[in-house]
Structure formats: C-alpha cells, structure tokens
Design goal:
Length: about 375
C-alpha cells in the first residue's frame, strides 16, 4: 500500500484547501481511527506512508501499527519540518536487511534547498526456501512546487541512485524493486515518462513543465544542462559516481595546478549531455485512465485540484513480442502484478463531498497492489 495520510499540521497550515469539508471530519481525533481502520481492512504486507507527522508517529501511528504486527521505519523531513515517510512491513513476512534514508537537502548545493526525503529498505521474505530473492522497497514524497521541476528531477535522481546502490546484486543485476510515493507529478509528464521509459532528453524543457501540474509555463526559465552540479556525485545515469582522484606518480610531482584544472574542464565538457537515464525497467501498477470511458483516475482531491500524483512503480520486464515470438514474457526480478485496488474519478469523489470526508480521512486515496514474487 502507498498512502499519503495528510499530516495534521499541513492540513491546518493549508486550511483553504479544505473549505468544502465539515469541520469535525478534519480533526485528527476523527481522522486517525478512520485511517487505521482502512489499513487494518486492506491488511497489506508492506505500507509506504507519506506525510507521517512525527509527534503522531511516536504516540499513535507506530504503536498502533506495531500492535497489528508491523515493523516500522521512519525518516522525518529535514529542517524542522514535522512530517516524513514511513515504511512498515509485517515481521511475520519479512526480515529487515538494511535501512537507507535519503535526504534531498544539501547545504553545499544551492539548488537542493528543500527538505524532502526518501527511504529505501531491503527486505528478505521469510520463506523455507533459502534461495528466495531480497526485495527493495522505496518510498518518497517529492517537492510540491509545480514551478521547480529542476529540484523534482534532482530529488528523483538522488532516490534512483540510492535504489541502484541498495538493489544492486553481486551478479550485476538488480533485485525486484517497488518504488512508491507522492511524486507531485501527473501521468504523461516528463518526470513520469522518465520513470517509466528510463530516459529523458530535457533540452529546452521549461522547469514548470516537468511535473505537468500546471499548464502555463510562460516566462519560466528552461532546465540548465546539466540540471545538477557535478559535486552532487550522481551521474546522468542516476547512479553514484566513483570519485576519480587524479593519480599522480612520485615522478610527476611537478604537475601544475593549471594542468589539473585543464583535465577537469575537459571531463566536464564531455558530460554536458541533456539526456538523463536510469537502468530499471519500471511499470506503473495503475493505468491512470478508466478503460471504458477514458476518464482520468485521481489519487488526490481537494478544493484546488483532483489529479493523480501518487504511484506504485515496480520492476517488470517490458513485453517484447518481436524478440521472442510465442514466448512468455520473462519478468526481471520476478514481480508479477496480480491485482490492484480501483481508484475513483473526480466526479465519484465530489458525490461524497471530495476529500477528506466522513469515511476517507486523507486528501489522498490509498493505492494498493498485490504481487507475486517469483523465484
């Protein structure tokens, strides 16, 4: 399950988004029991939660989920922001191999001045079969600001680099990956397409067009090439770069600073490509439109908008019929999607007065997918 549960502090700071709601349904004392009831009802083995408020996490959310048999890991946003991301898993189903928090704020990089975070876990399914593969679960909540696509893409690259590091196996392949969260980007946007297609040429792209949240991008600057500075240590392929230390032999002690700088300049010039890539083959659990009508699904709905911004992506080999005629599609990492919980249309949601309402206590809907993990 991936679920943005709406932090109470953020609800109160943005009360203009909830004018349509009756006041009692906005109180945390009303909302939390409802959210917990949903979590109990769906009974997922793994929960990826966003906007988990730190004080509520400590006093109510974590104890309640632990009593339901979940082990919880939490990463709070940086810079005194009161909420963060949690990944909770049933300890009857998984053992924890590693916990890898990701902070997107970097004091040494002016571009990265926002407090968003991600969390990446490596889990081992508990099974009598010793050869069972590990699985990588990632959760994030990217920057909201529709006009800062440069920051969003960089935050995504940082998350992908961490996933690449955590999911990388000895034989050079990746273990199965599930990447969840609120990406603050709509289906078909450049950021979304980059996740699904593994490549993006961003030359000439306005920073306000990256996420597709807003139509107009008049007067906006275009993405710089490269988007992030080299000292971030992440390549255009969204992996951590091995820092190249110039090898200086004892005999070359007279190598001047100017010569070193020259070699650095050459390397930088070679890297000035506007192509981003990543090496995962990711599919979306949801198709974002209802097949019969073509009407969009929505994952969030309040006074200002009703759109899809939440996703569950998973590693699956794309079908390539031409290459293997008649052959079944092999799944890299062995994740097979079996079922998903239906989303709703904007019209459906306004018939129950939008979100949050008496039964649904966040301004987002939960996303839920059932996978088979194959050996």
């Amino acid at each position: 399950m991936s679920y943005n549960i709406l932090s109470q502090d953020l609800l109160e700071d943005n009360s203009h988004l909830y004018k349509h709601c009756q006041r009692p349904v906005l109180h945390w004392s009303f909302r939390f029991p409802n959210i917990l009831k949903e979590i109990k009802h769906f009974d997922a083995d793994v929960l990826c939660l966003q906007e988990v408020q730190e004080d509520h996490y400590g006093t109510e959310i974590r104890p309640s989920l632990e009593s339901l048999g979940y082990h919880c890991e939490y990463k709070m946003r940086t810079g005194r922001k009161p909420d963060g991301c949690a990944i909770c898993f049933k300890h009857s189903k998984f053992s924890l191999i590693s916990v890898n928090p990701v902070e997107f704020y970097r004091p040494d990089i002016p571009l990265l001045d926002r407090d968003n975070v991600g969390l990446v876990l490596l889990l081992q399914p508990k099974s009598p079969c010793a050869a069972f593969p590990v699985i990588c679960i990632a959760n994030t909540h990217l920057l909201y600001n529709p006009r800062r696509g440069d920051i969003k893409l960089t935050q995504l690259a940082m998350l992908l680099a961490e996933i690449s590091s955590v999911a990388h196996q000895k034989d050079g392949s990746f273990c199965p990956i599930v990447m969840c969260g609120d990406f603050n980007s709509v289906p078909g946007s450049p950021l979304y397409s980059f996740i699904k297609e593994g490549k993006l040429n961003y030359k000439g792209l306005a920073i306000g067009k990256v996420s597709g949240q807003e139509q107009s991008s008049r007067g906006q600057r275009i993405l710089s090439i490269p988007i992030w500075p080299p000292n971030l240590g992440i390549s255009q392929n969204c992996v951590y770069e091995v820092q190249q230390v110039p090898k200086v032999e004892k005999t070359d002690s007279d190598l001047t600073q100017t010569e070193l700088e020259k070699t650095e300049v050459l390397v930088t010039a070679e890297k000035l490509s506007s192509n981003l890539q990543h090496h995962f083959s990711l599919s979306s659990v949801y198709s974002h439109y209802f097949p019969d009508t073509g009407i969009p699904e929505v994952t969030t709905c309040h006074s200002r908008s009703a759109i899809t911004v939440d996703y569950i992506f998973y590693s699956a080999e794309k079908e390539d019929v031409a290459e293997h005629p008649g052959a079944e599609v092999a799944l890299v990492g062995g994740l097979k999607l079996l079922a998903r919980l239906s989303l709703l249309t904007e019209q459906d949601l306004w018939t129950v007065n939008g979100l949050p309402n008496e039964n649904n206590s966040s301004d987002h809907l939960p996303l839920l997918a059932k996978f088979r993990l194959e050996l």
